[in-house]
Amino acid sequence: MFENAAPRAIARKSLHQELVDRLQQMLISGDLSPGTKVPEKNLCVQFGVSRTPMREALKVLASEGLIRLEPNRGAWVTQVTVSEVNEVFPVLGALEALSGELACEHITDAGIDAVRSLHNEMVEKYNARDLDGYFAINQRIHRAILLAAGNDTLTTSCQALSLRMQRARYLANMSEERWRMAIAEHEKILQFLSERNGPELGRTLAGHMETKRASIVKWLQSA
């Protein structure tokens, strides 16, 4: 997998964060598969970095629960489990609900327009059956609502849990039925945000997380 990849040196403006971000994306997308050993040496060559920044980045990923570090055995990609999904998603749903309620109190008209524009882009990705593009914009929508809530503690907590679950969402097969449901749920999210209806937006976001949880658990149990 890595032998044929052209090395891509990382810009030095923020070596540590750029390396963490790239490794996170590889873990979320499944390029580094659950249950496998992280090929540190090959990744160092691919990214043009030494072992020291690589190991520092792996420590961050371990703290996020994406990998585990084993003495004398290196780094291993953690498995996504049913128990973890069932534990994390209810908490994430509650945080998303709170972010929706607070966003309705604080978001500007320009902020709503920005979310609407992202929503339209996401629908275009759906119509084109571009799943990678859809997921990327979906995350931007949820982040925009979270930031509009204007609560740093909420943002930090929600982003940490969301990162852990992004991998599960990405790896689980998105059925056509579930994809249609997700688009319909996002139509409601945009509607209630535009109306600044905090209670309804909160309930919709919590329900959106619950349907995601159920679909991921179904996939994990059948895999």
Q: Helix tally?
A: 9
Strand order of the largest sheet: 1-2
**The level-1 CATH class of the largest domain:** Mainly Alpha
Overall geometric form = globular
Helix content: over 70%
How many beta strands in the DSSP annotation? 2
* Structural class label: mainly alpha
Query: Using only CA atoms, what is the Rg?
Result: 19 Å
Task: Note the gap between the termini.
Answer: 23 Å
Q: According to CATH, what is the topology of the largest domain?
A: Four Helix Bundle (Hemerythrin (Met), subunit A)
**Poorly predicted residue ranges:** 1-6
Question: Biggest β-sheet: count, sense, barrel?
Answer: 2 strands, antiparallel
Kindly report the name of the CATH homologous superfamily of the largest domain.
GntR ligand-binding domain-like
Overall average residue pLDDT: 90
Beta-strand content: under 5%
List SSEs in N-to-C order.
Answer: HHHEEHHHHHH
Give the number of domains. Answer: 2
Overall CATH architecture of the largest domain: Up-down Bundle
Protein name: GntR family transcriptional regulator
Keywords: DNA-binding, Transcription, Transcription regulation
Pfam family, one: GntR
GO molecular function: DNA binding; DNA-binding transcription factor activity
